[in-house]
Amino acid sequence: MTRTLTARGIAVRLGGTPILHGVDLDVEPGRVHALIGPNGAGKSTLLRALAQLITPDGGSVTSSGTPLAGLGARRRAQLVGFLPQDTGVDQDFTVRDVVAMGRYAHLQRWRGPGPLDADAVTRALARAGVADLAHRSVRTLSGGQRQLVLIAKQLAQAPGAYLLDEPVSALDVAYQLQVLNLLRDLAGDGSAVVAVLHDLNLAARCADTITMLHAGRVRASGSPAQVLTPDLMAEVYGVRAVIDTDPATGTPRVSALGPAA
Amino acid sequence: MVPRGAVVAGLAGLVLLTVLVAASLGPVATSPGTVLLVLLEPARPALDAIGLGLPVAEPAHASLVASIRLPRVLLAALTGAALACAGAVMQAVFRNPLAEPGITGVSSGAACAAVLLIVTGVAQATPWALPIGAFAGALAAVAVVQGVAGITRPGSAGTLLLVGIALNALLGAVIAAAIANAPDAEDVQRATFWLNGDLTAATWADVLLIVVPVLLGLAALLCLTRELNLMVLSEEAAAATGVNTTMVRHVGLGIAALITAACVSVTGVISFVGLVVPHLVRLVIGPDHRRLLPVSIAVGAVFLALADLGARLLFSPVVLQTGVVTAVIGAPVLLALVMRRSAAVPR
């Protein structure tokens, strides 16, 4: 299912404080779209507004022309998936049980999961590389394994667009690469992928498009080379940065040196 | 995996066996067979017609079982099932292992209304005043808690918990004041009995009053198991997976409160069943609500029927209140669970 996710004029106030001021975002199918910006820029809030987990005070989100606001929770979950940043799982479910829960939006109320669902779960486990953990309790997993399991749950949900809030922030470098490769893979299949990333060099390597948020507004959006510039780094993050090309990957490399002058 | 049908049949058999045994024991012991005959009595003409003549039970025993013991045992089983299921649902919705049916003010609301009716003498003067008043009190308390929590921060389970705690404290104070200032000492004892859960006077009328709402409520809660599984993982992730979390929270808590209200309005406050039974079951079979809810219902029914049996028999001729026995068993069990849990999970 290839779908374009489009946000227009998203405005959000939380507890009376304005967080987002009219944000536009276009996420094309088949592309990985990174959201970057300093802490408090509104990245997580934007992701939640896109997933309709918070109701924006203004603006609209559409999936290939279908407004998400009027949809029931089930239908919406078939169009947009969301992985929160907090990955704490303290319940004693098996990995397979957790991934199978991702099928919720596809199940009929009075019927149990069928062979198609079991198949989708098996494929999701394999694709995320956690098939060998299927019968383990999620409580016994490492942070990296747990994140892969929760991504497998998203795969089982099979939405048109994947939204992920800092999917690699707590992971070691091997898991970071594994997760980012998985995101590239999903985009390769024609899904739209939006991820909040704090590591600018990983964002530059993994994303087709980067949108830089600053104080609740889009400051810049474009290819990594267009967005990661010394001027924007100074203006948005307040740091003096040197940007060159990483000889190994050919993508922009950001070295933050100190506070901007 | 054991087939689902076998598990359900096994649980139903366990509950039936407990009812048969509990109703056959007492100062005058009868046989479980007598209880079975009493239970089958309404079907006698039909069984005779197909050539299955039933033996006739000893009339004195049959009447003792039919009119005194059976309603009490069935009331205990129904109440245990309802409280345990309500507790399991509330623990899931609040994502808090300490949640129990009393937390939303249900028990305090019922208790407050009941105590006021008892000490003012209304309950003794009017036959149905006590259960109806207690039920109304329970519902009023739940409405206040849900209403206040809805105004302050819609959708937050934590707020609901805090409002419930505040209301429980307020109602507790009213109850204490009403008892301390009761004009009649006999009413004080009556009120104290009620506050500790008392099945002594259980009648068929009590059973008939609650059987339909409790069974319907349990059936409805059993339809929410998928949603509860997702919500214990993370409420936000559940919403993103397609669960209408607001609906599940309101319907789940509402029905749990209703069946609790129905039970406590006839039995009085029975503590610990709603807290301990789901914990115990979760520890043994895991957190999957597709199994947790049905097993908690069965174990709750068995637990309270046996606790009530203990209340009747253990210190005979001194009769303890059922709620006292559940607390006396429940508190040490809970402590043991907590210690085992902290030993198992180094955190």
UniProtKB/TrEMBL annotation, chain A:
Segments forming domain ABC transporter: 5-240
Recorded GO MF terms: ATP binding
Keywords: ATP-binding, Nucleotide-binding, Translocase, Transport
Record keyword Iron present: no
Record-linked SUPFAM superfamilies: P-loop containing nucleoside triphosphate hydrolases (SSF52540)
Classification via Gene3D superfamilies: P-loop containing nucleotide triphosphate hydrolases
CDD domains named among the record's database cross-references: ABC_Iron-Siderophores_B12_Hemin (cd03214)
Tagged with keyword Nucleotide-binding: yes
InterPro entries documented for this protein: AAA+_ATPase, ABC_transporter-like_ATP-bd, ABC_transporter-like_CS, P-loop_NTPase
Protein name per Swiss-Prot or TrEMBL: ABC transporter ATP-binding protein
Organism lineage: Bacteria, Bacillati, Actinomycetota, Actinomycetes, Micrococcales
